[in-house]
Design brief:
Radius of gyration: 27 Å
Largest sheet: 2 strands, antiparallel
Number of domains: 1
Helix content: 25-40%
Strand content: 5-15%
Number of strands: 2
Distance between the termini: 79 Å
Structural class: mainly alpha
Length: about 100
């Protein structure tokens, strides 16, 4: 499919999948208001080219949950070896004063 620009002799190919992606996925007003015009124009193509990183067949754009991780902090005794060390290493004279 080809698109002809009005008032210009230039002919550009239209990526129909990109246009469908823009109309279906980027119609929500959640895109930042702090983007420049150039960034706003480049964003749809960037998101479309890397859509596997931002969405899946089950999750919408921006709602992918593949990257979740559980972080367990161990602050109970016995402490891990790195927590047993003093905050700053001290020279022998300073250790005596402490």
């Amino acid at each position: 499919m080809w698109s002809y620009l009005k008032g210009s002799q230039k002919v550009e190919p239209v990526n129909l999948q990109l246009e469908k992606f823009k109309s279906e996925e980027l119609n929500r007003p959640e895109i930042s208001l702090h983007l420049t015009d150039n960034q706003e124009n480049e964003l749809p193509a960037l998101l479309y080219d890397h859509r596997e990183a931002f969405a899946s067949e089950k999750e919408l754009l921006g709602e992918i949950i593949v990257h979740e991780a559980d972080i367990i902090l161990n602050t109970e005794r016995p402490y891990p070896p790195l927590l047993r060390r003093p905050a700053y290493p001290a020279i022998p004279k300073s250790r005596e004063a402490l």
